[in-house]
């Protein structure tokens, strides 16, 4: 019963080629500019992007770094968190959040998430606090912000630093405040597939604390003093944003707001058309979500993905094994996290791109409806 007028072309999970194609002429110019002047690390392009990104995030300043994992590590290092300290984070996150904690020598303490949003549970954070707890990481997963009001209250009550992992949430808001602007410091990733993606690796730290930003900038540039490049007051490392990537990001940043709006339209269409056995993760009305991923819960994931495969529709699982169950973190294994663990077996990421058409969303929905039969 295949009809020739029905579009059968594949629908990718993320259409990165199409996203970058929309700015290809500007990207060519940026590339030629940097290649022409020959400075490939630091310089005017990086400074320009840092100010534009800080303005976008409605925050005092930003420091470009090599990737999102480094950004989180550098925030923790800048806050002087290290050996002997515990850092609370959700079990439901990308592995990098936990790697950053271990990279500074602190101990990750995994806690459970809220059933409806799958984001860190502020009550679980409070319950996990000990005399060694130094910080909590609010991961704004899937493009939705964690409950910053309650997390700020918990952090305030116990004197903890509140770090934001905003790698999936460029432009999201909680009660009107941008991701990356209400904690002590935040880490962003510009990995190509993120809402704001470079043509390679990249990342940034944002904060309203200029002293913290200065310290992070020094650590990320070999511990150099700001006045004498041959004087190293502290032991640092190398984690810088490439000039070329900064130029690329400056081309793409002005389009981010409309792309995020487009992601919201796609998500709204999913909510309107998905069959009842495919349930999107809830959106808290206080969050203006930027839908990095379109995550749903399904009853039978194996048969659901077979139906998507038959229709050449891309999908992903973010993430099939929670961090606290990964062999790499076995030594930190603590209590079971029932909501995180149950969700890991049922979540599924549907195609989500700012370039997706309403027709494509409907094709995904009907493939899922057919798959249920
Ligand atoms: C992508 C991501 C990171 C790490 O970013 P990289 O740039 O890949 O190092 C950290 N946390 C979350 C939640 C992410 O999705």
Name given to the CATH homologous superfamily of the largest domain: Type I PLP-dependent aspartate aminotransferase-like (Major domain)
Bound molecules: pyridoxal-5'-phosphate
> Architecture of the largest domain, according to CATH?
3-Layer(aba) Sandwich
Oligomeric organization of the protein chains: single chain
In which range does the helix fraction lie?
Answer: 25-40%
Which blocks of ≥5 consecutive residues have pLDDT under 50?
none
Question: DSSP strand (E) fraction?
Answer: 5-15%
Number of alpha- plus pi-helical segments: 13
Form type = globular
The largest sheet is: 7 strands, mixed
CATH topology label of the largest domain: Aspartate Aminotransferase, domain 2
The whole-number mean of residue pLDDT values reads 96
The level 1 CATH classification of the largest domain is Alpha Beta
Return the string of H and E elements: HHHEHEHEHEHEEEEEHHHEEEHHEH
Number of β-strand runs:
13
